[in-house]
Design goal:
Arc Repressor Mutant, subunit A; 5 strands; 5-stranded parallel sheet; SIS_dom; single chain; RpiR-like; Rossmann fold; 290 residues; alpha/beta; DNA-binding transcription factor activity; transcription
Length: 290
């Protein structure tokens, strides 16, 4: 019989609390969390009643959700959101200003280079190696890998389709498919499969259908994004770091760096398995070349 007095240690960040307590969250809880993380800047200033109105739940539900996540109440949760907003979205702007002032030369190229440097500095803070390891294991444990991206993220989807294929994985690219083609592609998806999503800013209707289907069949979900917006259903793993100011130029180098880190980690953690497949492939290529 379980110990009713067992105390769960609270994770450090709000996002980690959500991940840790995800199994305890009901539909109303998820609606509240989705509202909070879909509006990280504004939510840090909202009252509990504001959150409830946007999530379309009773105001008391906001307090219950806060306590489920290990907070004393919504005021403590909101304080955590404020820390997240200043730390994650603002990106330690004040600490970067002195160095940025010495490097920016007023040119477009100089500003873009500095912006990339500022964004890169934040990646290790927002994405830990343990998260990269978990993403690598999730992919390699999947029976089939489905990859979705659109617009700019389609470049990442294509890269993953090719690289994961070279690791010997069964990969299906859902990018640029019509709604009917996507339905046909995921019809046989099962709980042994993995859906990898590259998505920024706002989820498309097509993606929401894919996520709902993945949840229905029990497939695992990996999301690579540029903010802390949480989708419904909640992905199993979220790798997120900002790509720049919302009103400025948004870099693709950040998600590319994160995505490549997962690929490199797979090569390191599964070196023997990857080498065995690539040796077989090399032998077959030589046969086809003769």
């Amino acid at each position: 019989m379980g110990n009713k007095n067992f105390i769960r240690l609270a994770p450090v960040s709000f996002q980690e609390r959500v991940e840790s307590h995800r199994a305890d969250l009901n539909k109303s809880d998820l609606a509240i969390v989705d509202v909070l993380l879909s509006n990280p800047a504004e939510a840090a200033l909202w009252r509990g009643e504001d959150v409830a109105a946007r999530a379309r739940v009773h105001p008391s539900a906001v307090t219950r959700t806060s306590k489920k996540l290990g907070y004393k109440g919504f005021l403590e949760l909101r304080a955590d959101l404020r820390d997240m907003h200043s730390d994650f979205l603002a990106g330690h702007v004040e600490t970067l200003k002195p160095r940025a002032a010495t490097m920016r030369d007023g040119s477009t190229l100089g500003n873009m280079v500095q912006s990339e440097i500022d964004n890169f500095i934040l990646i290790p803070k927002n994405v830990k190696q343990r998260d990269i390891d978990a993403a690598a294991d999730l992919i390699m444990e999947g029976e089939r890998i489905y990859i979705y991206g659109r617009s700019d993220s389609a470049l990442l989807s294509e890269m993953y389709y090719r690289r994961l294929g070279r690791f010997g994985l069964a990969v299906h690219d859902l990018t640029d498919l019509t709604a009917h083609e996507n339905a046909e592609a995921v019809l046989t998806m099962t709980g042994k499969d993995v859906l990898i999503v590259f998505e920024f800013r706002k989820a498309s209707r097509q993606l929401r259908h894919l996520l709902a289907h993945a949840e229905k069949v029990g497939a695992r979900i990996l999301l690579v994004t540029d903010n802390l917006q949480i989708l419904s259903p909640i992905p199993d793993i979220v790798l997120a770091s900002p790509r720049g100011a919302r009103d400025g130029w948004l870099s693709m180098s950040v998600p590319l760096m994160i995505a490549n880190s997962v690929i490199v980690t797979i090569g390191e953690r599964y070196a023997e398995r990857v080498k065995e497949y690539q040796d077989r492939l090399d032998r077959l290529k030589r046969v086809f070349e003769t």
